[in-house]
Design goal:
268 residues; Rossmann fold; 8-stranded mixed sheet; 7 helices; binds nicotinamide-adenine-dinucleotide
């Protein structure tokens, strides 16, 4: 018996990187995964071939309201259910400047359309996908929303407009979503790698020459599986750091050690 037998999980940004690694791990734990990535993204079809019949590919742009509704309809019709949403899709600073970590771009050099695109892909997408899934999750009295944001320090890094603000918006919204959903059986938690991870997004080979020293995408799997499972019932509004998940502990102990309240809970 897998921890996720008979669960259907939507994973956005599933073609590669962290989304692909989580999809593989969720399927190994028994889930059916509706793997979403952009229209025309051929890597999604390659991933579908590699992961087999429990990976149902769905080309959609999750920054668009109509596409989000289509993804949810696809899950309900093709997989026959919907239990978990992993809001993982996102774009990084590499779309603006390959070497942004070693040679940061100041905000006044950005075009407004670059701001809008990134806010759409990284923050609005999480709102739109959650909004599309939540009526079904509330009606069944059980659900999970897992939002991938980023390290709190990255949100404030020099030269990280608009990535930092887009992820800060997603982080804040995760806390609000968790509060709004209290008492419904639907939980909302944040999951982050806990450092630069070995994916396409980390393109600055001058700043990160050693790929083995980065957080490997597979580190996301154990916390993603645990949060998606019944074992995390009642755990909401938390932020999990994948790098800190200690697989030598029981999952419940590892979860406790790898999480803290989501957002910025100070007196400020
Ligand atoms: N790599 C890191 O170091 C790191 C660190 C912290 C957080 N993250 C976050 O983790 C998530 C996954 O990143 P990754 O490193 O795997 O990057 P990646 O570029 O390898 O994968 C991101 C995927 O999201 C897809 N995507 C982007 N916008 C989309 C949209 N509007 N609709 C559908 N699909 C879309 C892309 O096509 C791509 O396949 C992102 O949200 C990212 O911000 C990454």
């Amino acid at each position: 018996m897998g921890a996720l037998d008979s669960k259907t999980v939507i994973v956005t940004g599933a073609a590669r990187g962290l989304g692909q690694a989580m999809s593989r791990g969720l399927i190994a734990a028994g889930a059916t995964v509706v793997g979403v990535d952009l229209p025309g993204e051929v890597e999604l079809d390659r991933t579908a071939k590699a992961l087999g019949g429990k990976f149902l590919p769905c080309h959609a742009n999750v920054a668009e309201e109509a596409d989000c509704a289509r993804v949810v309809a696809h899950a309900l019709e093709t997989a026959g259910g919907l239990h978990v949403l992993i809001n993982n899709a996102g774009m990084g600073m590499q779309v603006i400047n390959t070497f942004n970590s070693s040679d940061p771009t100041p905000f006044w050099k950005l075009r407004p359309d670059q701001w809008h695109d990134m806010l759409g892909n990284n923050a609005t997408s999480q709102f739109l996908m959650a909004r599309a899934c939540v009526p079904h999750l509330i009606a069944q009295g059980w659900g999970r929303i897992i939002n991938v944001t980023t390290s709190l320090a990255t949100m404030l890094l020099r030269g990280f407009t608009p990535y930092g603000p887009s992820k800060a918006a997603a982080e804040a919204h995760s806390v609000i979503m968790a509060s709004d959903l209290e008492g419904t059986g639907v939980t909302v938690n944040v999951l982050v790698p806990g450092g630069a991870a070995n994916t396409r997004m980390i393109s600055d080979f001058k700043r990160y020459p050693d790929r083995a020293a980065l957080v490997q995408p597979v580190k996301m799997v154990a916390p993603a599986v645990w949060i998606a499972s019944n074992q995390s019932d009642g755990v909401t509004g938390r932020r999990f750091i994948a790098k800190n998940w200690d697989e030598s502990l029981t999952p419940a102990e590892a979860a406790l050690a790898a999480c803290a309240p989501a957002g910025w809970r100070t007196n400020g």
